[in-house]
Amino acid sequence: MSTSHMPDSDATTPAASAQASPRILIVADDLTGGNACGALFAEAGLRTITVTETSPAGSIDIRGLLDDFAAVVVNTDSRHLPPQQASELYSDLIESAGPVDLVACRIDTTLRGNVGPAAAAAISARRRVLAASGGPRHRVLGLCVPAFPAAGRTTVQGRQLLGGRLLEHTELAFDVRSPMRTSVVEEILASGADLDCRLIDIATVLAGRDAVRTAVLDAIGQGAEVLIADALTTDHIDLVGSVIAEISHDVAEATAPDTLTRAGLADGEQLDWVTIDPGPGSLALTLSSLPARADGILLGISGSATEVTRSQLAAVAEDPTVTVLRTPLDDAGLPDVEATLALIDRTASARAIIIATVLETSDLRELTDAESEQTTQRLAVIASTILSAMPVSGLYTTGGDVTATVMRELGAMGMEIDKEIVPLAVGGRLVGGRADALPIVTKGGLIGDTGTAVECLEFLSTTARVRRD
């Protein structure tokens, strides 16, 4: 992935201030694996589509899809093709897809199929595309992080394990079409391809960020074409992705001359990565390459008085980057719009601000139907005013009446659904009105457990970093 290709922010309204959508091409060797990989990207808040058309001259316009989706997964059904045919298919797809920010080779979690030929073809095609683009010179490398810990696949000392066992010691040794004779990732990559690989071993990963950074720079400086990284947990994968993104950014911005020297890069030369993994590694690099945060706050509006909601707000308030405020009340015991907005003005720069009517048991009041309706309306006015006054990159609402009233106040005609974060808590984007395409998460007051609001904000944080035009 090349950070120099990420489009610049193009904010025109407070509600549309996030980074423009990335263009991620994921070439998968089979349908089920491609769909599983796509689901990872979608669950992270990136709009994703999977397609089965593999011919550049076919009816599917991959370039057009990349205009509409952050990630396009092309399922090639190439796992059991002859290596040369698989290589040609990958080359044609990558070269025909046009400008992208990341090319990812989605491989089998147990490394069956044309892993080496597909990776080599993807790296070569990416080099040709960048060379023909007329932009800066790039060194294109492969990043292979084959672990998928959530599915019981880990990588230790460069060997892929399934449930803690070497692949050749499992039933995969007797696979009819792709019997596994080795678990050594480098050997699998070298089968049918000529790739110079270097391993970032588990000891280095466990040693932490500085150790991984040093190992990556040394491997690049030694002329490696593919970096293989061990991982036992998703956190290990995220660490590797984060370090790779950081190094690539430092090189692109020329902020660390010693990085260029250590990596053996020429002045002006940049790094670009082709990921080779089942999905988590590609996602980790993608998320680490997005802006560190959206250009705007996450705004929460809570009109629920339930004990569930109060516990969720208390959990969110433990995050020092989140400010949770109770609305001051006027003489009538209703939320005071002006006083609440004054509190917002005095709030230190926070990642998220949540405005609630009830935080403690002592805040509970008996309201008439008219007072309940007025409370909801005033919360909607507060939300609308904040959206007009400052950049807001995501909206979190709890309480069905509050959500509906806020949407009406903003002129939204509805909500495009992206994901059910937990049962009955839904993430998506507003449709229509002056906050069109603003990421939003809605949930009822009795929905979820103590950590649900934290999960909802995490979803918004990712989604808000990608603007959908």
From TrEMBL:
Keyword Transmembrane helix appears in the UniProt entry: no
Entry EC no(s): 2.7.1.219, 2.7.1.220
Record key words, sorted: ATP-binding, Carbohydrate metabolism, Kinase, Nucleotide-binding, Transferase
GO terms, molecular function: transferase activity
Coiled coil spans: none
Gene3D superfamilies (alphabetical): Four-carbon acid sugar kinase, nucleotide binding domain, Putative sugar-binding, N-terminal domain
Residue span(s) of domain Four-carbon acid sugar kinase N-terminal: 24-246
UniProt keyword Glycoprotein present: no
One of the Pfam families matching this protein, by short name: SBD_N
Signal peptide start-end: none
Four-carbon acid sugar kinase nucleotide binding domain: residues covered: 299-450
UniProt similarity note: Belongs to the four-carbon acid sugar kinase family.
Name this polypeptide is given: Uncharacterized protein YgbK (DUF1537 family)
Annotated source species: Brevibacterium epidermidis
Lineage, top ranks: Bacteria, Bacillati, Actinomycetota, Actinomycetes, Micrococcales
